[in-house]
Design a protein that fits this description.
The chain has 332 residues and is an alpha/beta fold. It contains nine helices and 14 strands.
Length: 332
């Protein structure tokens, strides 16, 4: 070529067009695409719209924070709201997140005489239990309200058909799994009655292909804690709103008109600010992190109101969701 300097190659039009043709292959290796190896998600639990006085504000704050954090999806772990027309503004606040938002059925979501089917329809979810995909992970949502078990009161059971579904999902997954459920099955007292059978399904999947189960998230107990059971990580997410107290500890800590409008308020030790967590699962660094929130009690704390450490241990019952970080196995 004329006027070319020694050691310098000129780009011809043909070469330039060839480079454009290969652009998709180049982009596939860029950090932006590689970022799909990471997923960020917001978790909130036990908001109890039908008990607490300011639940719409709490959900508005959560959704705003998750949008600011660019969360890939949000999920609530149950005890959210009854499928009653009066709760439409509360559900609308949740739906304002947009795109990927998921629900877990809690035991109180069917209070007031509603059925699970009515609550499923109200939330707009595929079913009582279901799966979803978000980037590099598979989410499995379980329903801990199946008929069965021997305990009185609210159901704490996962029936055989749902167990078979869980086995199939774990067998067929092509990516790590996050399990979401309302009532824990980590072996704690008053958890799911057939907890051992559910854990064994996860443990078999983990033994067959290590790193299949990244973590299990639950709510229900309004506690802040985590545990490792036979190689599976279980994380309990505290209530967004309060700690529920015994009859003996009932106190009217809000204005009288609020207690008249919300008769169950006297049974709660409320958190002044809403609690939630932002979790990040990074498959490149093989790490799961949970960024929690802290608040303070409204009025006297539970022990000042007469409960005991044995009933409400300080290391679990607190107005906080702890920051946590865990190493995870590499999925292959």
């Amino acid at each position: 070529m004329k006027n070319a300097k020694p050691g310098v190659s000129l780009v011809t039009r043909r070469t330039f067009l060839r480079s454009l043709a290969s652009l998709p292959l180049i982009l596939a290796a860029t950090p932006a695409c590689a970022a799909r190896r990471r997923v960020r998600f917001g978790i909130v639990s036990d908001v109890h719209q039908d008990v607490i006085r300011d639940s719409v504000d709490r959900i508005n704050a959560f959704v705003a924070a998750m949008r600011k954090a660019n969360a890939d999806f949000i999920i609530q772990l149950g005890d959210f709201c009854w499928p009653h027309p009066r709760n439409a503004p509360f559900l609308a606040a949740w739906n304002a997140f947009g795109a990927q938002r998921y629900h877990v059925l809690g035991n109180h979501d069917m209070d007031g005489g509603f059925t699970r089917e009515q609550t499923v329809a109200y939330y707009g979810i595929p079913g009582r239990h279901y799966a979803f995909t978000s980037g590099p992970v598979r989410g499995l949502v379980l329903d801990s309200n199946d008929p069965g078990g021997k305990g009185a009161g609210y159901k704490r059971f996962i029936a055989p058909d749902q167990m078979k579904w869980l086995e199939r999902e774990l067998d067929q997954t092509d990516r790590p799994v996050l399990v979401f459920v309302h009532c824990p099955f980590d072996g704690s007292a008053k958890g799911i009655e057939n907890s051992a059978a559910i854990r064994s399904i996860l443990e078999r999947a983990e033994k067959t292909r290590p790193a299949t189960v990244a973590a299990v998230f639950s709510g229900h107990f309004h506690e802040d804690c985590e545990s490792m059971v036979n190689g599976i990580r279980y994380i309990r997410i505290n209530s967004a709103s309060y700690c529920w107290l015994t009859e003996a500890a009932a106190r009217e800590t809000f204005a009288p008109e609020l207690h008249r409008a919300h008769p169950y308020l006297k049974y709660v030790a409320a958190y002044r600010e809403p609690l939630w967590a932002l979790a990040t699962l990074d498959l490149d660094s093989n790490e799961l992190t949970v960024e929690g929130k802290r608040s303070e009690w409204v009025g006297p704390d539970p022990w000042q109101r007469g409960v005991t450490e044995n009933e409400y241990p300080h290391d679990k019952c607190r107005p906080a969701i702890s920051d946590r970080s865990f190493a995870i196995k590499r999925f292959s």
